[in-house]
């Protein structure tokens, strides 16, 4: 496994202003051999800030936090995108669980290197993360694949007039999230 993704899903409005999010993860030796971490979260409304300037926002859809580990390659990206866009994690207006592609909904993709952290004593270390240049390349390709697949799914959908966008954070920068959700409804996935 070369990537971890955290998925966050939400279906109603509950204001959660997030300045700092700390995840406590307990790693096994098998997990440390993995190289990618994605995570998802569906949302109702989200703003992403970079140094207090509004970068982007989405409405109903899914937030994907992603971290690439050493050894990650392009080969796994299509499977990741297909899995993430087709998992039934979103609630339709009828209450049925559907994928973000079926909703149709938007995506916000946030690079989050801290998902690859490992505690050593009382500090966190990130030695298993991919180098910054290769991580940026994989992140950019992942975003492009998500855009292509989600836009194609929306075009094929019977739902007319639905706004579908893929937004993303800036790789390597500290960012602030403001998220409206009825969660937490978070899933951690390894690829």
From TrEMBL:
Primary site of residence:
cytoplasm
Assigned keywords, A-Z:
Cytoplasm, Hydrolase, Membrane, Transmembrane, Transmembrane helix
Give any Pfam family that matches: Tyr_Deacylase
| InterPro entries, A to Z | Daa-tRNA_deacyls_DTD, DTD-like_sf
Q: EC number(s) of the enzyme?
A: 3.1.1.96
Task: Report the subcellular localization.
Answer: Cytoplasm
One Gene Ontology cellular component annotation held by this UniProt entry: cytoplasm
User: What does the record give as the reaction this protein catalyses?
Assistant: glycyl-tRNA(Ala) + H2O = tRNA(Ala) + glycine + H(+); a D-aminoacyl-tRNA + H2O = a tRNA + a D-alpha-amino acid + H(+)
User: Which superkingdom, per the lineage?
Assistant: Eukaryota
TM ranges: 7-27
Gene Ontology terms, MF aspect:
D-tyrosyl-tRNA(Tyr) deacylase activity
Q: Which SUPFAM superfamilies match?
A: DTD-like
Oligomer and partners: Homodimer.
Supply the PANTHER family for this chain: D-AMINOACYL-TRNA DEACYLASE 2 (PTHR10472:SF1), D-TYROSYL-TRNA TYR DEACYLASE (PTHR10472)
Q: What is this protein called?
A: D-aminoacyl-tRNA deacylase
What is the originating organism of this protein? Nothobranchius furzeri (Turquoise killifish)
């Amino acid at each position: 496994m070369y990537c971890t993704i955290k998925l966050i899903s939400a279906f109603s409005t509950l204001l959660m202003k997030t300045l700092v999010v700390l995840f406590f993860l307990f790693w096994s030796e098998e997990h440390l051999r993995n190289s990618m971490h994605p995570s998802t979260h569906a949302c109702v409304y989200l703003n992403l800030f970079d140094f207090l300037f509004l970068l982007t926002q989405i409405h109903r859809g899914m937030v994907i936090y992603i971290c690439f580990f050493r050894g990650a390659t392009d080969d796994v990206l299509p499977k990741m995108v297909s899995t993430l866009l087709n998992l039934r994690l979103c609630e339709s207006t009828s209450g049925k669980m559907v994928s973000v592609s079926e909703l149709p909904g938007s995506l916000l993709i946030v690079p989050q290197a801290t998902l690859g952290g490992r505690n050593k004593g009382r500090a966190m270390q990130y030695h298993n993360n991919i180098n910054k240049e290769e991580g940026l390349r994989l992140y950019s390709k992942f975003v492009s694949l998500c855009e292509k697949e989600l836009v194609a799914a929306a075009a094929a959908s019977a739902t007319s007039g639905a706004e579908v966008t893929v937004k993303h954070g800036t790789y390597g920068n500290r960012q602030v999230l403001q998220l409206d959700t009825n969660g937490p409804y978070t899933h951690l996935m390894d690829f």
